[in-house]
Amino acid sequence: MRFDDGLLEALHEGMFQTPLWDGFLHRLRTMTGAQMAMLAIRPHGQTDVAELVAGEGPAGVVRQLMVGHAMREGRGYALDDLLDMTDPHDRAQARETLLAARITSVRAVRVTEASGVDGWLACAGGRSLGSSAGALLLGLAPHLRIALRNFAALEHERFRSAVTGEGFNRLNIAWLTLDAQGRIVESTQNMEQMFQWGTLLRRGRYDRLVPASPAIDRQLTGYVKQVAAGQAVRPLAVNLSQDPWFDMLVAPLQGETISGHRSAAVIIYVSGDRRSQADRCEQLVDLFGLLPSEARLAWLLAQATSISEAAETLGITVETARNYSKKIYAKTGARGHAELVRVIMTSVLALS
């Protein structure tokens, strides 16, 4: 069957519209002369049905006639077919409601996408809504199935992206990509927020990423040039600040990107913490029942600092630091320095 050129285009573009499939349903209603066009969608594993309508009419009744019965795929249904499958009491009530809305004809079709998404497409109107409308819906069924499959995949990726993004946000991790000139190609929303935390990193002229430290700026520029020249380089880890903690990992970008007009050369993961060392020590006191002196040592040890370096930073003897560390290990359940780092850095502190 041949379709109006704009109808299939509207169907496949409908998943990006707000409301969903609005243009498609209005075009379908116009083509068939229907009083109302409706697309009902039931996501996989759910009982609720989303109802998308163009025009006026008792959409709830039409939806119930379709969804409430075992409509088979590949078959067109008329109003009498749907009413025949309905309980006599409900049938009379449905017919009365439809007649009150001057709807005497319904054409409907059902499709089921492979992942389990169900869709029902219907037109409802007067007697002029004939078999041609039913044939049109049957011809649209395979295309609707493809559209629903794409919609299901898009929604799945949106959900995964939202969950991943929330996890990155809670862990205070952001990312951005740079081209060969050190210009930002794309970045996560929380990266833009980190730019406003302070002056350690900023978006400069022409979207260039600018570290506050000239030495780090030169190091980053040289690294990007090496990657752009095709040299094999290892990821580069850079600490930007220790209090509050702020660091980044720069690595060659694996694979191609089509999201920007400039090709990205490297990806940078940024881990930032707006909380000061004092804030984190207070959290360690609450979380593990440490004394303030123990919490200060525990936080330094969690940065993979040696016990002698930590003792010097705190102005205590190494022997005192060792005594503190024994109490820290007992209270946190860690069995050594490496495990203490893991326990603290993967605790709820990372989510706060």
Structural description of this entry:
With 352 residues, this protein is an alpha+beta fold. It has three domains: 5-162, 2-Layer Sandwich (Beta-Lactamase), CATH 3.30.450.80; 171-272, Beta-Lactamase; 277-351, Winged helix-like DNA-binding domain superfamily/Winged helix DNA-binding domain (Arc Repressor Mutant, subunit A, Orthogonal Bundle). Helix content is 47%, strand content 20%. The protein contains 13 helices and twelve strands. It has a five-stranded antiparallel sheet, with helices on both faces. The chain has a five-stranded antiparallel sheet with strand order 7-6-12-11-10. A two-stranded antiparallel sheet has the order 8-9. A hairpin with a 7-residue loop joins strand 1 and strand 2 (50-55). 32% of the residues are buried.
Key features?
352 residues, alpha+beta, Beta-Lactamase, Arc Repressor Mutant, subunit A, 3 domains, five-stranded antiparallel β-sheet, 12 strands
Describe what is shown at a glance:
Helix content is 47%, strand content 20%. It is an alpha+beta fold and 352 residues long. It folds into three domains: 5-162, Beta-Lactamase (2-Layer Sandwich); 171-272, Beta-Lactamase (2-Layer Sandwich); 277-351, Orthogonal Bundle (Arc Repressor Mutant, subunit A).
What's the SSE blueprint?
Layout: H1 5-13, H2 22-32, E1 36-42, E2 50-55, H3 59-67, E3 77-78, H4 79-84, H5 88-100, E4 105-112, E5 118-125, H6 131-170, E6 173-178, E7 184-187, H7 189-195, E8 201-203, E9 209-211, H8 214-228, E10 236-242, E11 245-252, E12 266-272, H9 277-288, H10 292-302, H11 307-314, H12 318-332, H13 337-345
Antiparallel strand pairs: 1-2, 1-5, 3-4, 4-5, 6-7, 6-12, 8-9, 10-11, 11-12
Domain HTH luxR-type: 287-344
InterPro entries: Sig_transdc_resp-reg_C-effctor (IPR016032), Tscrpt_reg_LuxR_C (IPR000792), WH-like_DNA-bd_sf (IPR036388)
Protein name: HTH luxR-type domain-containing protein
